[in-house]
TrEMBL record:
Keywords: Cell cycle, Cell division, Cell inner membrane, Cell membrane, Membrane, Transmembrane, Transmembrane helix. The gene is ftsL. Part of a complex composed of FtsB, FtsL and FtsQ. Essential cell division protein. May link together the upstream cell division proteins, which are predominantly cytoplasmic, with the downstream cell division proteins, which are predominantly periplasmic. GO terms for biological process: FtsZ-dependent cytokinesis. This is Cell division protein FtsL. InterPro entries: Cell_div_FtsL. Belongs to the FtsL family. It is a single-pass type II membrane protein. GO terms for cellular component: cell division site; plasma membrane.
């Protein structure tokens, strides 16, 4: 008689284990989808930052060009290159 009593008990334990594993799969799938959505957001942010960095590099190279610096020095500060009469050669 004890074998007949143990069968429903084992069935109940197995049912609980199956249900537990099913809930674990549901929870891990939900977490995986959340992580994938976060990954997509981070990749979009990375793309935006790379695009902005490229624009800033282009702006920096434009502002740092010799022609721009020379024209800004002449227009804003009134600087001009010295002529031959204003230069002196110093002997060592």
């Amino acid at each position: 008689m004890s074998a007949a009593v143990l069968k429903p008990w084992w069935a109940l334990v197995l049912l609980m284990l199956v249900l537990g594993s099913a809930f674990f799969i549901i929870a891990s799938t939900h977490a995986s989808r959340g992580f994938y959505a976060q990954l997509q957001d981070l990749e979009a942010r990375r793309w935006y930052l790379e695009e902005e960095y490229s624009r800033l590099l282009l702006e920096q190279s434009t502002l740092a060009s010799h022609y721009r610096i020379e024209s800004e020095a002449g227009e804003t500060l009134g600087l001009v290159a010295p002529g031959h009469e204003q230069t002196r050669l110093v002997a060592p």
